[in-house]
């Protein structure tokens, strides 16, 4: 069992079920997410998530409320290099999922601040996403036996054709041909 996964008491499962949480999926949640889902409101959920994340992993979550808007910052305290963007996106997606599940309402994160910072850095979110997808595709094709359709799914492409076109634009060949060539070593 992972260090941050804990057995869930039946009483907690009953309380979570009473507020609409699919308890069949609870066993897939880490202790920080469970604590957040047990909070009485979204503000407390964010505080609990931040507190428990500090306890179970080298991750700190900073929360600042400005004009009724929560600004959330993640910091991986032991990271010696830039944290991969997929991890950052996953962390934000977790917060949004907890907010949606806890409030029962749709939550849409704003990327205004991110867009401004990216523009100042001379890039866009789409360019970063494409680069992360390219690197991840190369790594998955080189180091796993996943077929191209599975890689496409993991990278968020809705169709294999879309992934194949994107990969061909990046590498000048199809994923299958790239895997079969010596490109995987470079």
Whole-number mean pLDDT? 78
Measure the end-to-end span: 36 Å
- Topology as H/E string? HHHEEHHHHHH
Beta-strand content estimate: 5-15%
Question: What is the alpha-carbon Rg in Å?
Answer: 20 Å
**Residue runs with pLDDT of under 50 for 5 or more positions:** 1-8
Describe the structure.
- The chain has 186 residues and is mainly α.
- It folds into two domains: 10-110, no CATH class; 125-185, Homeodomain-like (Arc Repressor Mutant, subunit A).
- 55% of the residues lie in helices and 9% in strands.
- The chain has nine helices and two strands, in the order αααββαααααα.
- It has helices at 10-18, 31-37, 42-56, 85-103, 112-120, 125-143, 148-154, 160-171, 175-180; strands spanning 59-66, 69-76.
- It has a two-stranded antiparallel ribbon.
- A hairpin with a 2-residue loop joins strand 1 (59-66) and strand 2.
- It is globular and about 55 Å long.
- The model is unreliable at 1-8 (pLDDT under 50).
């Amino acid at each position: 069992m992972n260090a941050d996964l804990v057995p869930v008491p039946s009483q907690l499962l009953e309380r979570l079920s009473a507020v609409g949480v699919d308890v069949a999926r609870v066993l897939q949640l880490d202790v920080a997410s469970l604590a957040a889902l047990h909070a009485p409101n979204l503000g407390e959920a964010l505080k609990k998530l931040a507190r428990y994340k500090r306890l179970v992993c080298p991750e700190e979550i900073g929360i600042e409320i400005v004009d009724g808007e929560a600004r959330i910052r993640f910091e991986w305290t032991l990271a010696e290099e830039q944290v991969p963007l997929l991890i950052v996106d996953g962390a934000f997606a977790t917060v949004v999922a907890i907010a949606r599940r806890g409030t029962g309402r749709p939550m849409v994160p704003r990327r205004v601040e991110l867009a401004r910072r990216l523009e100042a850095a001379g890039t866009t979110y789409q360019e970063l996403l494409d680069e992360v997808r390219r690197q991840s595709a190369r790594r998955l094709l080189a180091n796993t036996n996943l077929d191209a359709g599975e890689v496409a799914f993991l990278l968020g492409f809705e169709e294999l054709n879309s992934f194949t076109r994107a990969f061909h634009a990046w590498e000048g060949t199809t994923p299958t041909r790239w895997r079969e060539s010596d490109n995987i070593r470079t």
